[in-house]
Design goal:
This protein is of the alpha+beta class. The protein has five helices and nine strands; from the N terminus they run E-H-H-E-E-H-H-E-E-E-E-E-E-H. The chain folds into two domains: 4-90, no CATH class; 93-190, predicted glycosyltransferase like domains (Thrombin, subunit H). Helices cover 28% and strands 35% of the residues. The protein has a six-stranded antiparallel β-barrel with strand order 4-5-6-9-8-7. It is globular and about 55 Å long. The protein starts with a strand and ends with a helix.
Length: 191
């Protein structure tokens, strides 16, 4: 069992970008230390467990990582991976529904158009975000509209992860911090 994690390992456990883990560390949300004469960070296992408990994150993610590490050691170099590994998708609290909806993100008082690619009770994944000042917002307002049904949603989101997309924009994985759950649930049941 790993007692101290690299930022890359923590990123794999939570399925987030390594820069998100670095930010959590730098903001003292995860405890650990920096290696001498290096910018590398190490994060204590106990801190990861505390973080998971504080944010109601399933302990299965850590168990899946531990199992993966244990199996990696048993298999040895060049061995085939496990037939049915646990995927992070299987451990999600809320199932994601694939959609393609128009949306906007409020960035510095300006509405930036985005495309909503998936939606769940817990959050949303959008693509096509590009900021004129090259700033990625940590928390923001999002508006989503389904033109066919007339359904709409306005919410506040917190950035969980991001990745660069082919169109030189960003894909943003976001967690809802303020949302009307009854409207969202009704919509998700219809699609």
């Amino acid at each position: 069992m790993t007692r101290v994690f690299t930022t890359g390992q923590v990123a794999r456990i939570f399925s987030v970008n390594i820069n998100t883990v670095i930010k959590w560390f730098d903001d003292a949300k995860l405890e650990g230390f920096r290696l001498p004469r290096s910018n590398e960070r190490r994060i204590y296992r106990e801190s990861v467990i505390d973080f998971m408990e504080q944010h109601d994150i399933s302990a299965e993610l850590l168990r899946a990582f531990d199992d993966e590490q244990e199996n990696k050691g048993k298999r040895g170099k060049g061995a085939r991976p496990e037939a049915n590994p646990v995927r992070h998708e299987d451990l999600r609290t809320f199932a994601r529904k694939p959609v393609e909806l128009k949306g906007t993100i409020e960035d510095n008082g300006e509405r930036v158009p985005v495309t909503v690619r998936n939606l769940s009770m817990g959050g949303v994944y959008v693509t096509g975000f590009s900021s004129a000042d090259h700033r990625i917002p940590e928390a923001f307002r999002i508006a989503v509209k389904d033109e066919e049904s007339g359904w709409g949603l306005e919410s506040v989101c917190q950035l969980v992860h991001l990745k660069r997309t082919k169109d030189e924009g960003f894909g943003l994985g976001c967690r809802f911090t303020q949302v009307d759950p009854s409207s969202l649930q009704a919509y998700l049941q219809r699609i």
